[in-house]
Design brief:
Layout lengths: L7 H35 L3 H4 L1 H23 L2 H21 L3 H19 L2 H8 L5 H29 L4 H4 L1 H15 L14 H22 L4 H22 L15 H31 L4 H8 L1 H16 L5 H20 L7 H28 L6 H29 L3 H33 L4
Helix pairs in contact: 1-5, 1-6, 1-7, 1-9, 3-4, 3-5, 3-10, 3-17, 4-5, 4-9, 6-17, 7-14, 7-16, 10-11, 10-17, 12-13, 12-16, 12-17, 12-18, 13-16, 14-16, 15-16, 15-18, 17-18
Length: 458
Amino acid sequence: MGETKLEFHKYVAITSVIIVLVMTVLDVSLMNVALPVIGGEFGVSESVTVWLVTIYQLIIVMLLLPLSSIGDQYSYRRNFLLGVIIFTAGSAMCALSRSFTMLLVSRAIQALGGAGVMSVNVALTRVIYPRAILGRGLALNAMFISIATAAGPSLAGWIMSVSTWHWLFIINIPFGIIAFIIGLRTLPRNPGRPPHPHFDWLSGFFNMLFFGFLFFALGNFSRKGDVTLSIFLLVLSLVIAVIYVRRQRGLEHPMFPIDLFHTRLYSTSIFTSVCSFIAQNLTMIALPFLYLTELKFSELSTGLIMTPWPLATMIISPLAARYIERHNPAFTAAAGMFIFIGGLLTLIFMPANAGIWDIIWRMAICGVGFGFFQTPNNIVMVMATPVERTGAAGGMQSTARLTGQTLGSTFVTIIFALIPAIGLSVEVCLWTACAFAILACVFSVDRGRVIIRRHVTL
């Protein structure tokens, strides 16, 4: 039996998807580095400047599921191309901004385009790649995300050392144009869609309110904002969630994919994904405080120490994709999470006088484990859903990732507030990350048994 190969025109099509995926990921890491410079230029406080990141994340999470629903019912290709146009136009507006207000509005427009692309990224990958090698496509996406994540801070520092922050946005324009031209010529159309597509505007409104209030409240906790406001918005988001979910139960193709949650493989995969990204963010946010404050490393050394994690994930993801073509992906994900837990334990029991190389190999173990987990987990999640619901599955996959990352950062804030001693607070964060990683590992083993028992072909 010969190996399944990807046709040349599909390689060209996936190039368009990867270019924009890298652009949207880089945009976040570049902006994080540039915030102090931009705030200083416009004379605004740190709490106001951070809205350049907050507005981007809020809009994306509010629009992911509505735009995924539109993609399922109408066209993944159209969603993607419109998203590229809007993201590129927003980047140009950011570069031309002459006031903080204009820059904030331009970031919101950028986020609208980013949501359009991210809502159908997984769906287009599934349509482009043959089923037998879909894991390679998802691994390729994960690899480029890791590259962009690792390279972002260094790239931002280099750009601002030779020019102004405006070039952080200008570089998006030529790549956006190239991605649009390639996508227009090569991206496939939906393999199937409802005979009478109809977008549920009311569900879209409830979705935006629920995720908007929820993520704003969690972000407000992370920024140590008004606690009363945060609690009020959390309660309000839960009330809206009840109304929203009740409405979804009566729909044939619900925006919030409650129908997919009836599939055990899918529901456990979503829960596993949330747990894994909570664990990841708890670790990635807490550790720099340990390295800078307790171990007294410089900012440059700390950046070097953090790099092996995404670098190892980048290397391992394609290998994991090849491996799951012949082996149970859920058990592979469980093994990856087990390795990740081992890496966390080596960090927890690291000697107090650890040097740079003592830390680097421990960070690399975490990256190897996460790389072996991420792609198999994604493939189970995607293949456990009907092809005509791939947009909803992909949108929920991105929502689960953002939810896990936001909860992880919120937990770090709470732990640091309760435990002033940096060394002890970081240790508590790492033990908490272990707990969530163990949950992800246990649920992955359960999924593996379901795949064997039901003879599920992925």
